[in-house]
Structure formats: C-alpha cells, structure tokens
C-alpha cells in the first residue's frame, strides 16, 4: 500500500521514517524531506483561513513520476507523510485519509505512553506494527 | 468574411453553426451584413435537457447557400457541418410571380428538407415600399404571406416571418428586424436543443456498446469530440472541456483495467512500440495531423495523450486558466510515463525523457506566450514543477548520452544520441521560425557537451531560483544538490562544493540522518578532490563515526585519517595519498566531537581540592566513535590557572568552594551531557538548563557585602545565536585553536578502543590556585583532535595553608573543679614537623595540666585517614609544660588530648552575696555571669612561629549556692540551697556548715547523712538550726562545704565545693501577730461587713548591741523607746482597710513590751481569706540623718521612700499627716525628711503569716463570690 511512512516533528526532524524497499531508503528520505516545503506552504495557507475549521489532511503534496506524496498535520504541528507508488491506482483519497487517521490514532497512543519522551524518535513496537500493516496491506 | 465557403469543414476558431439560405440570392446578399452583425447582439437563454443549467449564449451563424449535399446523409454524425437551420428568402409581392415561380421553388426546397427529415426551416418574406410603389396592381401585402403560410406552414405559422423595409432606418424597420431576429434565435436554439439532444443520445448508446468486441475508442473519441467542437463553437468552453475530460477519464480507466489484466482489443494499437517522441504541440488549436492519426487508429499512446492534452490546453486557455494547464501538464507527463510502463510499451531508452523534456518546455512556452511576465513571476509555484522536471530529464538524457562526464561521449553514446534524435522527427512548421523552440533546444543540447551544459544550467538555475522565490528552500537545495552531482561528474568539485555544503547544512539543521550521511560523503569526495585536507579529514572523522555507514566504509574513512596522520616528512612512501601529499600541512587540527566524546570526568580525591604538591588524579571517560582502535600519541588537557581562590584563603575557603560545586557533582564526578552524535537524530538538542549560582561581591578592604545576586554561568550557551549558518558549522575549525602556554594534563601512547575508554591523568598541583580544564587535545601523528571548550566547567583547586593549632574542649562545656579533657589539633599546613619540635605551654596555678603516663597522638593525612599513632612525652617544669611533637609531614593533622583541671575559687566570688537573705534575691546580671564561668588563657609557643598563641578556655562552675536565714519565734535556722547549673549529674556527700568567726555558736544539722544525687538544674537544700548560748552573734561568718563527684564516674574521688557567707542581725526583735474578729453579734465575718483587726506587736529582746547604735531610739529616763511604723498592706485587694492603715507607735525597748492596735477592715470576698500583711519599719527622724549607717544601701533607702510615696491613698496621706502631728514638728521643706528603714528579715517574726480567716458571703448578696486561696 504505502511505500514510505514518516512522522516528522514540529521542528522538522524525523521522529519516525520507514520505507518498504529498503534499498531506496535514501531516496525516500530526500522525498519526504522535500515534501516539507509543500507541507509548510499548505499550513501557512491554512493559517490564514479559519483556524478552528482546520482540516488536518493536507491532501496530495506533490506527485513525482513514481510516487505520490500525501501529507497530514496534527494540531501540534507534527507532520505525517505517506508516500504511495504512483502505479497503485486503487488508492483513493478516502483510503489515504483513513490511513492517516489510523496513523494519528497510533501516534496518539505513543504520546500517551508516560515513558515516551516527546521529541524522541518513536520506537514503539505497536506503532511499528501498525505502520508495517499499512505498508503490506493491499500491496 | 466570405459567406460562400467551398469547403465547409473548417476546424478553426471561426467555426459557427451553419445556416443555409435559399431563394432570392441577391436579396440575402443585401441583408447579409446587417444580419451577421445583429444576430449575436443580444443573448438568448438556452434551456437544456437533463437538468443542465440554462445558459445565456450569443448566437452567431455561418450563412451558406443551400445545397442538397449539405444535408447530412443517414448515419453521418458530423455535427460541425450540420446545417441547423434552413432559411428561404423571398421579396415576392406579386401573386402572379409567386404562383409562377416562387411557390414551386419553395416546394422543391421543402421536399428536399423533408427528404432528410429536417424540420428546422424558416421562410422570410421581405417587404419593401419601393416595390409596392412600382407595382400598383399588387394584392394587399398580407396576401403573399398568407398564401405562403397557407401553402407551407399548415400548423406552424411562426415558420414564416415578414421583414419590412430592412434597409431603411425607420422605426418600423427596426421593430421588424428585432422581431425577426428573435424569431431566428429562438428557432436556432430549438434546432440546437433538438439536434444536440439527438446526438447525445446516439453518443451515449454508442458508449454503452463499449464492451462489445468491435468497439473502438478512436471512433467514439471522434463522436464525442464532435460534441466538444459544437460546444466550443457555441463558446461553451466549459462544456467542451467536460467532453475531453470524460474522454480522458475513459481512456485512463481502460489503461488501468488493462494493467489489471482486463485489456480491451482496441488498446492494442496503443501498445505499439513508440517510434516518435516529438512532444506536445500546443500552438495550434487543433492538431489535425494527430487527429487524423487518432481517427485512422494509427495513433500511439503518446499521440493520443498529446492530442487530448492539446485540446484541453486550448480550452483551458480560453477559460483563462493557464495555471491549471501547468498542473495538468505535470500530471499528464507523470501519468504517461506510468501508463507506458503499465502497458509495457517498448520505448527506446531516453525517448520518454526526450518527450517529457520537450513537453515541459512546450507547455512553459505556451504559457509564457499567453501570460504577462509579472503574472508568470507571481505564479511560478505552478510552473516550477515543470522546470525542475525538465532539468531532471535533461540531466538523465545527458548522462545517457555521455554528455555529463569529463571525457565527453564515446561512440556508443553518440549512437544512442542519433537514435534519440531520429525519434524527434522533423521540426514542426509552426515552431520552425522560433529560435528557442523546445525542439531546437533539445537538438542543440544533445549535440555537444558545452551546449548541454549551458542548457542544463539554464534550466536548473531557473528551477532553483523559482523554488527560492516561493520559499521552497528544501526543494531548491535538492535541485542544487543534483546540480552539484552534475559538477562532480564533470570533474568540477569547486563549483559543486557550495551546493553540497548548503544542502548538508540544511539536513544537519533539521536532523535528517540518512541525507546527512549521503551528502557528507559527497562533500568529503569534493574536499578530497579540492585538496582541502583539513576539511576532508574533518568530514572523514564524522563519516568514520557515522552509524549509518557500513563498517567497511567507516573503516575506510578512519584509515584515511590515520594514513594522513602517519605520513612522515618523507611523503614518497605514501603513494595512495597523492591527493593529500601536495598540500602537506604540518598539523591538521580537527574538532574532537566527530572523533570522540567526553562522557565523564572524575576527580580523585572527589572533593577536587588538594594542597600544594598533593597527588590529584583525573579520570576521563572518552567515548571513541571510531570503528577501529586508534593509537593516540598524546592526550592532553590544557589547564587554565588562576589565583582567584584557594591559596591565601586556606583550607576553609577552598573546602567551601569544593562543597559548593559538589552539590551537582556527587563524589567528584562531572558528567557531560550526551551530545547527539554528529549525524544524530536530534538536530537541536534541548537548550541546556540554566546554571545559576549565587554571587556575592565583597569589598576588598573590609570584606563587607556590597552586592549579592544570582549569576547565570552558561549565558554564552543559552544566548548563542541560532541562525541558519552559525549553528550549522561543526565546532568550526576557526574556533579550534590550541592553547599553548597553558599547563597540561598529559598522557602518552593511549589506545582508544571503540566505545568508552578510561584515561587517567595526574593533575599538576604545584601552585596554589584554581585550575580550570579548558581544552582536550588528542594527537594522532600529524592530526590533532581538539575539544575547544570543556563544558560544564571543570575545576580543581590547590591550596596552601599556614600551620594552625587549635585547642577545644572535648565536651560541650568545661567544668571547673573536675579534670577535663582538652583536644589539641595541629594542622601542619606547609610546615614539616621535625624532630625536637615541641609545644611550650605556660602554666598557671589555677589551671594545672594534669600529667598522664601516656598521651597518645594521632597523625592524620589531609584526607582524614589515620597515618600513624605515637605517644607524646610531656614534661613539666615550674613555668612551662613542654609537649614534644611527633614527626609529621606537611598537610597532616596531629591530634592529642590533655587533661586540665581548673580550681574553683574558694570563698565568695563577690562580696554582696551577704545580702542574699531570706530569699529576697537581688539580681545583679554582671555578678551572675562572673560567678558561673572562669576564663583561663593559656599561652602556647609553637615551633613554626615566633609568636605565642593565646588560647582561651572557659570553665563553668557546676554549682550555684544561695543561703537564707529562717526564723520561728526566736529560733533560727540556716538554709543553703545548692543548684546544679551544669549538664551533668553529681553525687554530693558530706554537706557541712562551719562558723568561721570564732563565736560560740552551735550548728545543729538537720540533713541526711547519705550521698545525694543532684541532676542537672536541680537543687539540694541543707538546713541547720542555729543556737547560741550567750549573746546573739552580731554578724557571724559561715562556710558551707560539700564534696562532689560526677555521678557517672564511679569511684572517682570527690572534689570539694565551698561557699562562704555572712549573716547579720540574727536575733528576732519583734513578733507581730494579728487577729481578725467578726463584727459584734456575728459568728463569722461576712463580705461587706466590718471586722476588727487586732494587731499585737511584742518586743522579744532587750536592747541589743546592734540596736544601740541605731539612731531610731529615744531615751527617756534610761528607758529606751523605739519609734516604729506599722502598715497594713493588702496587695491582693481582699480587704478594705477602714480608717488608718498605718500608724506610728513608740515601743518601749523591753522584753514583752506589747503594743496593740485596733483597726477595722472589711473583707471584699467570701472564702478563706489570708490575713493582710502587716509591715513594720524603723522610723528614723530626719535629724538623725547625717551619720549614714555603713550598712544602709542607698538603693534600699530609695525603695522605702518610694514605697511610701507610691501608696498615695488617703490612708497613707493621713498617716503621713499623723506622723507630722505626732512628731509635733513641721518638717522643713527640703532634703531632711523622716526616713523609714525596713528591718532585716530575721529581726521581725510574723506570727500570723499565712493565717486565714473564714469569710461568709454577705446576706443580701445576689452574687456569690468565693475566693479560694
């Protein structure tokens, strides 16, 4: 399903990043990092509009030849980025949204862990398992 | 405008719905101009089927002469050539003519229309006045129209309209025109609705057949496009675009289905190998060439997509939505690449890149062609994607064709280039004239290395600039990095460096580990090529410690450093380091952070405070980040020395400082915050916590506090600028400077293993002062790793100290009278105790030093550990006691104890103890303290000083004694109270009292014989009865003595305690007794009722010696009388004295002389009330003043006078008056006043002291008050 899933801290450093074809890991890192440009653009554009009616889902950030990059930002400005293979056409907007929702829920669980230090890289097994499931599913 | 078009199929924007004209050609021609002008002037509302919103449209028409072959044949779906309305024009007004020719003509025309089942027609009859005038015999004008209506429009009378005088400027003509035009428009719209509706129905049914095997997308495409054309023709671009979008979606779906295994037959034609990749063509509204390919089923997928997009682009531009074009273009290009992949169409390598590149540029140029420059710049966020895409594709083409290398293309590359160029075909005519056409650019770029570079740089810089302009810095850097890679492949590292550094700093600041590693490797390669040795080594160090690299890579980078480090001056030996050789610098100084991290630092001893010359060890814990063991030639920490503290202040100050830091550093350990590894996950570690410290500023002269405050010690860390550039520098090489002049902690030949290493240093402690560790420097051959600042601050202190002697009691207080142990402590400081050194103590008699056979001394090291023990020899002579000290090295402590005894001074400590009689204590504060403590000063000569040391010892007297004289009538008792004021309990034995004056007095002890225990702050009372046989003693002296020993120490010998005192006026002279009798007739006293108070004063003694000296006596015939003042005092206000409360009386000085006084008193309360006090005073007349009695204390005198003065009730005033009257002499105003003097306690016996009388409550009292005493 997804080929790369990343959680990026408010300060734009990665809290969690995982990609499925590991040999391309570096490329995904570059892709996700570059996508932050668009995320920031979208966040600042949203900031001008009504704040409380904010949509967390940012939609397609940008397409590349091979991948589609989707973004989502929590209220605490933690960003989720999901990269999907362009050839995977079965994924519609709704599926991406539900993936983000699942990701957000799992992330919230991580944050609720009293032993987790906010700002540290995420090492939760539950979170990892959920991400793996999203990457394998319907692949 | 040419109304007569031979070929009606014109696919241009000038397309208009076709309307045919028939009948009078000349007539139509004359009206043509006004008709075409006026028709579009007013909009019409177009109501549409299928619930589509109505639209206002301006109608235009292309008027064509009617021909039969214009009418569509059966099955022809062409809409563009479809005549929507047929008009027959006639200006016939002659019935004859009509019947003769016109009618026939109309019938023929009608038949043709009917044959093609066309119902959209109109007959126009033009009337003109000129014609009427000419032909007078005409029928009424209506008749022709009516005839036509009758003949042709059997039910549709509106199919025939009259146009009156169309060429005249009359209002009638206007009216006629407008009604005609509206009719025309209505009919046109009706025709549209009907014909398009039918067309759409046909089209839908055609689409439904798409599952049938013979169905062809291309055919369907043509049909639906026809609809799109019509909408376009009607200026309904939105609707036209919808048609293309539907086609697009349908096609996409088919491709996707095919990818999913559900391929359609017709799709096979699109799967043919791509042979032409000449890019999009957007300059023509309709690319007929491609359209024909589609129509004939020869189109490839790229052709299909190109054509579709070109149409969409055209329509979007009509709709003024250029930015949607760019967005769709990018999607299209990505999509096409995907689709070709999905359909497994074979494409020549690089062909797609060509196509994408050409398409990107074509779109951009098309957009540029239709937009203002400012508009373009404002919207570069929409175009930048295409720029970047184009540059990316050009780069990959360049790589493919060998244009991105130092050597240029080889023959294989050239072959490939030729193949690629072949696929471009020939340039299209519309761009042939443009110098900048995408086609020319690509051809030129692929033709030579230089041209390629120029074009590539143009594109890349444009993309980067645009990204920067819209704030997409990361994207800009990524493009920059790609550019740097290009430069590197071209062998131009100098230009690559900046871009790489820029990208690297970005990743470092945001903490993206993998990109950091990757980019840093590129940077390292760049530095290596540039011979920037130090930078290269620094990057290598970082890479060697980078966990994201494999072990081999890390080892490689580590070896790079080591091989440089081991290069000797003879560089010939090192062949592989040729890059580095040329730039041999003597030393390479690198930041330590990449190489190793300081984790922990531990002092031994932990206090980090040592005396001069003492051993202080520092243990460093250094975590090596290198993948292999590294042998350090030297590891040194430079030390900054300052005289700020320590030294002069000696041990106390230094110790205090050590403690202060110890608060956050338990056991002398400094832990260094864990730095994120250079390529760590956390880019910005949390700012360090505030390190606050109390600060006191004392004035240098008198050490008084001038200011106090709180200082933040790490301001420089907290307030460091967090700019983009500053924080990104690795602890910069500019900052890595080695302090040279400082002292060093050094170890040589250390091998650092990967991971934590422990290294031990011996710290210099030569001079007293504060030593601060500043830098850490590891030397590996010619490479030095320097940690420029050690933070948090690590300090140790070295102090120097004068020898000191202190003497302090072992217990809290020293007690006098008992042997006490005193502890001598000698802190040797810098002095070394040699053989023969001794302490000389001056002796005093009051405090001898007790010699004990063995006096052990302990010698302690500065850390408080016992070094040795020895026995002191103490020698005493008359004047001095000499204590020979054991040998002791400097900075040691000698401790020993001596026993001293302080004698309690015999006798009263002060003369006025005599005055303490009968419990009437007179407090003298200064006397009190002087009595309880004794200070002794001992002068000690120390061997290290020419001056004597004075030691003050304070001894506390353990007891406080008081005495009092008690009387019962004439019998006398002496009570001594001994209070234990010390903290310990004592055993007391043998209390004894002896009269020391030599008078014959008998003292009868009433005390227990046994040993008594007196605990702390308890008292012991001893009583003796005093008897005398002859005359009463005048002022006898007594000495009380008792033996005591501490209760704890059993068997200890008893020490004596003595107390001397003197008594005076021992004899009882008067006895005063009182009695209260109830009022007459009452059995008991009652509240508020008067009672009688009878006072009886009896003389008990003859005139005694002491009295005879007194002046208060009057002699009368050998008989003495004494003047006394009595006074009834009731301090507790139980009694109200009625009448006089005091009075003078003369008392004969004779045994048993009695004087009675009757008084009336009234009890104020009920209950057992104590008797009021009766006081007796000696009354001394004023003339008896001058000889002031020796024993009279002025203080007492004042007391007695004030006593009299203060009792200013009427009674005392009266009594004073009575005194005066009794005296008979009016006393002169002034000092000589009669005087009252109290008796000594033993002289008056109060017989009725403490007696009580029962008082009953008054009868008529409602309130019962009972006073119980």
Describe this protein's structure:
The complex is a heterodimer of chains A (139) and B (1269). By secondary structure, chain A is an alpha+beta fold. Chain A is built from 3 helices and 5 strands; from the N terminus they run ββαβββαα. In chain A, strands 2-1-5-4-3 form a 5-stranded antiparallel β-sheet. The relative contact order of chain A is 0.20. Chain B has 1269 residues and is α+β, with helices and mostly antiparallel strands. In chain B, helix 9 (301-318) packs antiparallel against helix 10 (322-342), helix 10 (322-342) runs antiparallel to helix 11 and helix 19 runs antiparallel to helix 20. Chain A binds chain B through residues 11-14, 25-26, 29-30, 33-34, 36-38, 40-41, 62-65, 86-87, 89, 119-121, and chain B through 256, 259, 330-331, 333-334, 337-338, 341-342, 381, 385, 467, 470-475, 478, 507, 510-515, 518, 681-684, 686.
Key features of this structure:
heterodimer, A: 139 residues, alpha+beta, 5-stranded antiparallel beta sheet, 24% strand, B: alpha+beta, 29 helices, disordered N terminus, cytoplasm (chain A), Trafficking protein particle complex subunit 2-like protein (chain A), golgi apparatus (chain A)
Describe, in short, the structure shown.
Chain A has 139 residues and is α+β, with helices and mostly antiparallel strands. Chain A has 3 helices and 5 strands; from the N terminus they run ββαβββαα. Chain A has helices at residues 25-48, 93-112, 125-136, and strands spanning 2-8, 14-19, 57-63, 67-73, 79-85.
Give the helix/strand layout:
The complex is a heterodimer of chains A (139) and B (1269).
Chain A: E1 2-8, E2 14-19, H1 25-48, E3 57-63, E4 67-73, E5 79-85, H2 93-112, H3 125-136
Antiparallel strand pairs in A: 1-2, 1-5, 3-4, 4-5
Helix pairs in contact in A: 2-3
Chain B: E1 18-23, H1 25-38, E2 43-46, E3 55-58, E4 62-65, E5 83-90, H2 95-115, E6 121-127, H3 129-134, H4 142-152, E7 160-164, H5 171-208, H6 217-233, H7 237-259, H8 288-295, H9 301-318, H10 322-342, H11 351-370, H12 373-378, H13 380-400, H14 411-422, H15 429-432, H16 438-447, H17 449-469, H18 473-489, H19 493-510, H20 513-530, H21 533-544, H22 551-566, H23 578-581, E8 588-591, E9 596-604, E10 609-611, E11 616-624, E12 630-642, H24 650-662, E13 669-671, E14 692-698, E15 705-712, H25 715-718, E16 743-752, E17 755-763, E18 769-780, E19 783-787, E20 794-799, E21 804-809, E22 814-815, E23 819-827, E24 838-842, E25 849-850, E26 855-860, E27 866-876, E28 880-884, E29 893-901, H26 925-932, E30 933-941, E31 948-956, E32 959-968, E33 971-980, E34 986-995, E35 1001-1005, E36 1012-1014, E37 1019-1028, E38 1037-1046, E39 1055-1062, E40 1070-1077, E41 1085-1086, E42 1091-1099, H27 1105-1108, E43 1113-1116, E44 1119-1129, E45 1135-1138, E46 1142-1148, E47 1154-1163, E48 1167-1170, E49 1173-1180, H28 1194-1206, H29 1210-1223, E50 1235-1238, E51 1244-1246, ...
Parallel strand pairs in B: 1-4, 1-5, 5-6, 6-7, 8-19, 10-20, 22-31, 40-51, 41-52
Antiparallel strand pairs in B: 2-3, 9-11, 9-13, 11-17, 12-16, 12-18, 14-15, 18-19, 18-20, 21-23, 23-29, 24-28, 24-30, 25-29, 26-27, 26-29, 27-28, 30-31, 32-33, 33-37, 34-36, 34-38, 35-37, 38-39, 40-42, 42-47, 43-44, 44-46, 44-49, 45-47, 48-52, 49-50
Helix pairs in contact in B: 2-4, 5-6, 6-7, 7-9, 8-9, 9-10, 10-11, 10-13, 11-13, 13-17, 16-17, 17-18, 18-19, 19-20, 20-21, 21-22
